[in-house]
Amino acid sequence: MADRKYTEDHEWVEVDGENGVIGISDYAQEQLGDVVFVELPSVGKVLDQRDEAAVVESVKAAAEVYTPVSGEVIEVNEELNNDPSLVNTDAFGEGWFAKLKLTDPTELEDLMDEGAYKTFLAGLS
Amino acid sequence: MSHSRDLSRASAGNTNGVVETVHGHQGLQLEEPLLFEIDNPGAVGVDLPEPGAFKMRLGGLERQREIGLPSVSEPEVVRHFTRLSQKNYAIDMGIYPLGSCTMKHNPRLNEKMARLPGFANAHPLQPESTVQGAFELIDGVAHWLKELTGMPAIAMSPGAGAHGELCGVMAIRAALDDREGGPTTRRRILVPDSAHGTNPATAAVCGFSVDAIPSDSRGRVDVKAFAEKLDDDVAGIMITNPNTCGLFEPDMIEIAELIHDAGGYFYCDGANFNAIVGRVRPGDLGIDCMHINLHKTFSTPHGGGGPGAGPVVLSDALAPFAPVPWVVHGADGFSLVEHADDAGDAKPFGRLKGFHGQMGMFVRAYAYMLSHGRDGLRQVANDAVLNANYVMSRLSDVMTPAFDGPCMHECLFDDRFLKDTGVSTLDFAKAMLDEGYHPMTMYFPLVVHGAMLIEPTETESKRSLDDFIAVMRALVEQAQQGNSDAFAAAPVLTPRRRLDETAAARQPILRWTPEVQAAEAAE
Asked: Does ipTM surpass 0.90 in this model?
């Protein structure tokens, strides 16, 4: 997706109108290993950019997920409660974490686009 | 030493090195079901006479159904637990190189002393006049620990490392509350990203938020990043020294000055004290409190053989807030201060344990201290560091050290040497099991990719280390020869094969249920 944006901590946000869906990247899920639990934010919660939005727990580690953009949580992916493995099998699709109503779309300008993120990943290995 | 991984055994499908037998036993390696599964209704350990006529006085609240505990005879229950114990791995069986755990030999002299009837049979509610020796011993251990750490005060009661952290951070909190004349407004505790997980957990349990300090490229606390985080919201810092990368934190004094100038306190995690006991007094580095794992540095049993013990040494600033009880020495001998009302000017934050601490561990630790003496404890640190560096130097040509050496009491490798082999750190650790070795700590510290953290301790001989090194080198060679399938299949020789950690975490079965009930529930 052309309009998916990334952080250096491997979160992504995909914007649709005034809302944005957030999740973690495929690279992040691969580094974490099998995800066994995701703690999601509550609907209605207002998050500032870089606030902790979720906690993801794998067999190897637990990690905080920070929201790439500010906004109010309007929906969370309840499916992850039943099947956290969706994060592993489809990090950019069914493994999404939460949908936010964006409060400051200009923040998107700080984030990396697909190409920049790929370059960033190449620099990590 | 020649070595090759038996691929034929490991790679074909049927194949777990297991021979089919009537009951699943493999030689004298016995299969053992759960206690509930060997329920033999009617069997008992002790024959009790049937109760005579009696009047029920529970007002109809008596249990209506069977309690559901398994019935087994005495030999059956003894065999059950003995068989299970034989599946356990212990320091008495071989090297136990878990990093940051200090799994050292537990000298038998310690056990002999702990079994002296005057200690073993003492009861914590005995009159004080009858347990003067026990108090003297607690006082003696306290003295040694204060001397070795260079600290003026100590709380003896915490039950283990994390409990000691709780004690220290509660003391910090009490000191801040006292200074500010009410609940402290300071909200953050700084913790390096290489810390033991218990450090941030303790801070969170005590109501603080955790702010991670990054490590620098040398695996040490980034002092500049730390200094930038300091403000009047910071309650303290928790640092492990040597840290979990097995490296000495060289900037402790500067860190202590900075945190004190900012009005916070300095917690030192003493989990790795074994590396510096007798050589460095943490008090000289400016810390305010530190727990000491008696079950690590001072050789009391550890890892299923506990309990642990985690006394906490305190600076003058924190000493007034130490939890009760403590031992005092007056004109009439030793006595205990049990309540805040009896504590004089001190302001204890409360009590952490029902009684006086892990008495049996104090006896063992004291035996260890007295049998080693000051020079012997210094030798402990010397040899622990020497052994870790020996392992590191003998493996560095085939494995990849995470940081440049030398190390302290443990050596840390990353997984670069496994790159492109298809073998993960986990696979490598599982293959060690087939070789009869308890794996090292893996995937910790989190700041190192695929970490393998090896702490041999001073109690391993050169021969033992050479045997371990030979196994590690052989496994590295096999991994690099492309035997990734064999590694993925490991372990093949253990009573159970590779456990499905993911399923265990996603769908844990936390309780045994009888088949009948389970079947009903499924309907």
From this structure: no
